[in-house]
Design brief:
- By secondary structure, the protein is mainly alpha-helical.
- The protein folds into two domains: about 170 residues, Cytochrome Bc1 Complex, Chain D, domain 2 (Orthogonal Bundle); about 170 residues, Orthogonal Bundle (Cytochrome Bc1 Complex, Chain D, domain 2).
- The protein has 14 helices and six strands.
- The strands form three sheets. The chain has a two-stranded antiparallel sheet. The protein has a two-stranded antiparallel ribbon with strand order 3-4.
- The longest helix is centred in the middle third of the chain and has 19 residues.
């Protein structure tokens, strides 16, 4: 079905800072969020941070998976003997996703995670801390205890930044009071969400952005790929910019309409999913979250920004390369193509993919275009860009 656009590790931490502008350009809340986001001490075994699975060097996805996508389909947890069943979605550009909603035109759209179960990046930020296959703390209180623990090398910096950002004196709070813990944990999520709203995550510095701004020229192959993309892919991944003639500005596309689709991705028998018993029952995606059979098998349409840096692809990491997933989109329903059956056969999208009749050259051209969506072609966002609106974070609950 046609859809409308809704709304308009492997590298050292030093590289993370190099990918961003100076931390002094951030507010105290954003600096606090940055520190929390990159602090491995906040996991059960002091070995995993948000950045472990969402690193700028890998397009804000998992750098371990991106380096060996044919071997690592999903991410390890703080307990290395455990992993989840879903591929870590990139956190870059995630802050643009609208609140999870429904309307008659588009169906369900927005939210965070593959199944939309949280509304904003702040809501999402809470969940990995106490997920046993991620950071593996038993309670929110464990996270707060790690922040104020004198053995945490960042504890003094946390005291300063919490005071600056929220007015809290971490030295005098009563950490046996559940209300105090709840208030601080909400602020942890708020700070991380605020950091994810910064331009570190939303750079708009790809070759395609510079092309839209009139500052770069696409190659012949990339132009062919763009034309194919507009014909075959832009229904769910809108690629057109909005040109604002009144002030000669451009609003760049996000390459997602934030909706949900069942693409017919096969079961992934990768060793990580097998050891976690992920394939005992099919992953129903949005349908499983909502308890609605009409939504079974549907997962959120991902932004394609930085897509070349974020393998593996799909909710279960089935596809190890762009070439593989483009070929799947083109030939899923072609007799003799050799693709396994979908994990969930209900509600399959059969109108926008499956038998696109693209040649081998066409597929290569599409991949070439997708590679123009990687940030870092230029150093700064084009000056004539007016960025799409960030989804606001919810107000903090009263303590």
């Amino acid at each position: 079905m046609k859809k409308k656009l809704i709304g308009s590790a492997v590298l050292a931490g030093a590289l993370f800072m190099a990918a961003a502008s100076s931390a002094t350009a951030m507010t105290a809340k954003e600096r606090l969020g940055h520190m929390l986001y990159s602090d491995k001490y906040l996991s059960k075994n002091h070995n995993q941070s948000c950045m472990s699975c969402h690193h700028p060097a890998a397009g804000w996805a998992d750098p371990v998976d991106a380096a060996m996508p044919d071997y690592y389909a999903v991410s390890f947890g703080s307990d290395r003997s455990l992993n989840g069943c879903r591929n870590a979605p990139p956190s870059g550009y995630a802050a643009f996703s609208p609140i999870f909603s429904w309307d008659a035109d588009t169906g369900y759209f927005g939210g965070q995670f593959w199944d939309g179960r949280e509304d904003t990046v702040a809501d999402q930020a809470k969940k990995p801390f106490t997920n046993p296959v991620e950071m593996a703390n038993e309670t929110d209180a464990d996270v707060i205890a790690a922040i104020v623990d004198g053995s945490n090398p960042r504890s003094e910096a946390y005291r300063s930044l919490f005071k600056q950002a929220y007015g809290d004196n971490l030295k005098t709070l009563n950490y046996t009071d559940p209300a105090v813990v709840s208030d601080l944990f909400n602020k942890v999520a708020d700070a991380i969400g605020s950091f994810e709203q910064t331009t570190r995550f939303t750079r708009f510095t790809s070759k395609y952005d510079y092309y839209l701004a009139g500052m770069a020229t696409l190659s012949d192959q990339e132009v062919r790929g763009l034309e194919l993309f507009k014909a075959n892919c832009s229904a769910c991944h809108p690629s057109d910019a909005q040109y604002n003639t009144a002030d000669d500005t451009i609003t760049p596309p996000l390459f997602t309409d934030f909706t949900y689709d069942n693409l017919g991705v096969p079961v992934n028998h990768n060793w990580m999913l097998e050891r976690a018993d992920c394939n005992i029952n099919p992953d129903l995606g949005l349908g499983g979250e909502l308890g609605l059979p009409d939504e079974d098998g549907k997962f959120k349409v991902s932004s394609l920004r930085n897509i070349a840096k974020t393998p593996p692809y799909a909710h279960n990491g089935y596809f190890a390369s762009l070439e593989e997933i483009v070929h799947f989109y083109n030939t899923r329903d072609v007799v003799g193509a050799g693709w396994p059956d979908p994990e969930v056969s209900a509600n399959l999208n059969v109108t926008e993919l499956g038998n696109l009749s693209l040649s081998v050259t066409d597929e290569a051209d599409l991949v070439a275009f997708l590679q123009t969506l990687t940030d870092g072609f230029g150093d700064t966002t084009p000056a004539n860009f007016v960025l799409p609106a960030i989804t606001p974070l919810p107000p903090l609950p009263l303590p």
